[in-house]
Design brief:
Helices cover 45% and strands 15% of the residues. It has 3 domains: 1-276, 3-Layer(aba) Sandwich (Rossmann fold), CATH 3.40.50.620; 305-310 and 324-398; 408-458. It is α/β, with parallel strands linked by helices. A 5-stranded parallel sheet has the order 5-4-3-10-11, with helices on both faces. Strand 3, helix 1 (41-61) and strand 4 form a beta-alpha-beta unit. 41% of the residues are buried. The structure holds adenosine monophosphate and zinc ion (ZN). The site of adenosine monophosphate has 17 residues, from helix 1 and strand 10. Residues 411-452 form the Cysteinyl-tRNA ligase anticodon binding domain. Keywords: Aminoacyl-tRNA synthetase, ATP-binding, Cytoplasm, Ligase, Metal-binding, Nucleotide-binding, Protein biosynthesis, Zinc.
Length: 460
C-alpha cells in the first residue's frame, strides 16, 4: 500500500485522499505547450509542478505503474500566423520551437520521456503531438454528432452546449458569466452563443485534413478536441488526474470534459483536476499578450536551472508566485549551502519522512523545503532534495553551472591566473595585484592554498 496522498481537486473544490481507478496503473494528463514561440518562465511553472507530481507518484506507486502524458499543441491559429510571418512551413516552426522547449525544460531538471521509458515496456512518459491524432479527433467528433451533442453548420462542427445538462460542472460558473467569459465569436452558424468549435474549414495555405462525415471540404480541428483525443488514446476514456494552469479551467478544460463525457457517456473525464496558480510580475499574470514576460532561456542565461526550479517550488503550486531576482538570489544561496553540506555523498536509501509527509499533503513544497533546511545529515538531505529534482549535480558540476550562468570566460580566467603566478614568482607585486583585480572585475575570486596551488570560484 502506498502512503496516503491527498490532492486538492478543482472538480469538488476539496482536498481528498487520492485513489487511482486501477491500483496498478496511475494515469495523468497535463496540457502542454502550444509551440508557436519560445516559452516564458510562467509556462515553466506547470511543467515543473507536474514533473514533481510525476516524480512523487513514481515514488509512491512504482516507476512502471505511472503513465504521464503531456501533449504538444502543434496546430493552432497562432502557429499558422507565425509561420506565415517568418516565411517558413508550419512543421519547421513547430519542430524548431519544440526542440527549444525540450532544451529549456531539460535544463530545469524536468524528467523527459528518454529518461524514464524502457525499451519493450509500456511508455511511462508520452508526449503526443496533436497533428498525429487527427484520426482520433474525427472519430470523437463523429461520435458526438451521432449522439446528438454536436451539429454540422457551414463546414464547421459545433458542440451543442445546451444538449449537456450539467455543462459547467468543473468551472461552476453561472451561464451568463460563461457566455461572457467564453468570448466566443458570435457566428451565424451557432445555435447557442456558448457552442464551441470542434472542427472548422481551413483557409487556403493552412494545414488541412479530411473532415468528419457530412463535410466535403478539408478542415482542421478546434483546440479543445485535441486533448480529448490524446488523453483517450493514451490513457483511456476515464483516467486519474488531469492537470494544467488555472487559466485553462474555462473554457479549455470545461470543453474537454463536455466532449469526452458526452462522446463516451461517462460520468467524469478525469477523477482529479489539478491547476497551478499564476506566476506574476508586479501582481499581474506573466503573459505574452501583456508583454511582461521573460523567456525560460533568458532566465537560464543568468541562473543555473536548479536555482530556477528551487525558486519555483518555494511557493505552493496553487498560490500565485511573484517572480523576483531576490527569490532567485535566495534560492542560489540555499543551493550553495546545501551543496557545501552534501559534498559528493550518495543519497540515503530511505527518504526522510519529514520531507515526504508535506508533499503527500497536496504537494506542499514550501513545508518540504523548510524540512530540508532542518536536515543536517548530508545523505538524507541529498535523498530528500532528490525527490524534488534538486541537488542532482556533483559539487564541481554545480560550480561549472554557476560559471556558465555568470557568463565567465574560463580561458580568460586561466590566462590571468597564469599571469598572476608568473608575476608572484618574479616578485612583481604590482603585476600580481593587477591580475587579481582583473579577475575580481570578471566576478572571480582566487585562493592560494598552502601546497602552492591556486583555485578560483565565482564571487556570489
Ligand atoms: P499557453 O502556451 O498560454 O497555452 O500556456 C501553457 C501552459 O502554461 C498552460 O498550462 C497555462 O495555464 C500555463 N501558464 C501560462 N501563463 C502562466 C503563468 N503566468 N503562470 C503559470 N502558468 C502559466
Ligand atoms: Zn488541454
Amino acid at each position: 500500500m502506498a502512503p496516503m496522498l491527498r490532492l486538492y481537486n478543482t472538480l469538488t473544490r476539496e482536498k481528498a485522499p487520492f485513489a487511482p481507478i486501477d491500483p496498478g496503473h496511475v494515469r495523468v494528463y497535463a496540457c502542454g505547450p502550444t509551440v508557436y514561440d519560445a516559452a516564458h518562465i510562467g509556462n515553466a511553472r506547470p511543467i515543473i509542478v507536474f514533473d514533481l507530481l510525476f516524480r512523487l507518484l513514481r515514488h509512491l506507486y512504482g516507476e512502471a505503474h505511472v503513465t504521464y502524458a503531456r501533449n504538444v499543441t502543434d496546430v493552432d491559429d497562432k502557429i499558422n500566423a507565425r509561420a506565415a510571418e517568418r516565411g517558413i512551413t508550419i512543421r519547421e516552426l513547430t519542430d524548431g520551437t519544440l526542440a527549444t522547449f525540450h532544451k529549456d525544460v531539460r535544463d530545469l531538471g524536468v524528467l523527459m520521456p528518454e529518461d524514464v521509458n524502457m525499451p519493450g515496456e509500456r511508455p511511462r512518459f508520452i508526449e503526443p503531438r496533436a497533428t498525429d491524432h487527427i484520426v482520433e479527433m474525427v472519430t470523437l467528433i463523429e461520435g458526438l454528432v451521432a449522439a446528438g451533442h454536436a451539429y454540422v453548420a457551414e463546414d464547421h462542427v459545433l458542440f451543442d452546449v445546451p444538449s449537456m445538462a450539467d455543462y459547467g460542472s468543473l468551472s461552476k460558473r453561472p451561464l451568463d458569466e460563461m457566455e461572457a467569459g467564453a468570448r466566443v465569436e458570435v457566428a451565424p452558424y451557432k445555435r447557442s452563443p456558448l457552442d464551441f468549435v470542434l472542427w472548422k474549414p481551413s483557409k487556403p495555405g493552412e494545414p488541412s485534413w479530411s473532415s468528419p462525415s457530412g463535410i466535403a471540404a478539408p478542415g482542421r480541428p478546434g483546440w479543445h478536441i485535441e486533448c480529448s483525443a490524446m488523453s483517450w488514446k493514451h490513457l483511456g476514456k476515464t483516467f486519474d488526474i488531469h492537470a494544467g494552469g488555472i487559466d485553462l479551467i474555462f473554457p479549455h478544460h470545461e470543453n474537454e470534459v463536455a466532449q469526452s463525457r458526452c462522446c463516451f457517456g461517462t460520468p467524469v473525464m478525469a477523477n482529479v483536476w489539478m491547476h497551478n496558480g499564476f506566476l506574476q510580475v508586479e501582481g499581474e499574470k506573466m503573459s505574452k499578450s501583456l508583454g511582461n514576460f521573460i523567456t525560460i532561456r533568458e532566465v537560464l542565461n543568468d541562473w543555473p536551472g536548479e536555482v530556477v526550479r528551487l525558486a519555483m517550488l518555494k511557493t505552493h503550486y496553487r498560490q500565485p508566485i511573484d517572480w523576483t531576482v531576490r527569490g532567485l538570489e535566495e534560492a542560489n544561496r540555499t543551493l550553495d549551502r546545501w551543496y557545501g553540506l552534501v559534498g559528493d555523498v550518495s543519497p540515503a536509501r530511505e527518504l526522510p519522512a519529514a520531507v515526504l509527509e508535506p508533499l503527500l499533503d497536496d504537494l506542499n513544497t514550501a513545508s518540504a523545503l523548510a524540512e530540508l533546511h532542518r536536515l543536517d545529515d548530508p545523505a538524507s538531505l541529498k535523498a530528500g532534495a532528490g525527490l524534488l529534482g534538486l541537488l542532482g549535480q556533483t559539487r564541481s558540476g554545480r560550480e561549472q553551472a554557476s560559471v556558465q550562468a555568470a557568463g565567465i570566460d574560463v580561458a580568460a580566467v586561466e590566462r590571468l591566473i597564469e599571469e598572476r603566478r608568473a608575476a608572484r614568482a618574479a616578485k612583481d607585486w604590482a603585476a600580481s595585484d593587477r591580475a587579481r583585480d582583473g579577475l575580481a572585475a570578471m566576478g572571480v575570486a582566487v585562493k592560494d592554498s598552502k601546497d602552492g596551488t591556486t583555485t578560483w570560484s565565482v564571487i556570489k
